[in-house]
Design brief:
- Keywords: ATP synthesis, Cell membrane, CF(0), Coiled coil, Hydrogen ion transport, Ion transport, Membrane, Transmembrane, Transmembrane helix, Transport.
- Residues 66-108 form a coiled coil.
- One of its GO terms (molecular function) is proton-transporting ATP synthase activity, rotational mechanism.
- Its main location: membrane.
- The chain is built from 2 helices and no strands.
- The chain has helices spanning 24-155, 162-188.
- It is rod-shaped.
- It is mostly helical and 189 residues long.
- The termini are far apart.
Length: 189
Amino acid sequence: MNTVVFAAEVPVEPDGLSIVLPPLYEIFWSAIIFLILWLVLGWALPKIYRVLDQRQEQIETGLQAADTAKEEAALAQRERREIVRAANEEAREIRERADQDAKRIVREARVEATAEAQRITENATRQIEADRKSAELTLRRDVGELATELAEKIIGEQLKDRELSTRVIDRFMDELEADLKTTTAGVTK
């Protein structure tokens, strides 16, 4: 049996301090890596912090802008509601005024129509009365002339006195009207 012992396999007994301290080459490489990391982070961290600060400012600015936009939107909404309310109020007032104007116009038109109808009625009444009187005078004259002609034919003489003829005609017409009224009063009873 041959036993070959390799040096790597030979356990080395650690001394008291070597248990706590790592080997020198590990310390060297750890220091180099630490130095590189320190340089990289020393150079990169301010930039990273600056970017983070800018980002935070942008976020805060955005949040402030959003809050401002919310407030402005709420204000605009309130203003819109106020404008709509005012417009509705104004429209209601306009409708009320229009209704009042319409009622006033109708009232005025009725008054004017009543006045016009009254004027027309009065004119018509006056015209009828004038026509009636004119017809009565014409009828009285015509009947008087006929009665005079008839009386002249019956008597055989011509009535030359105009005044006498007028009195005779008036008396005849008065008697005729009295007879007519008596007849009419007896018929209506």
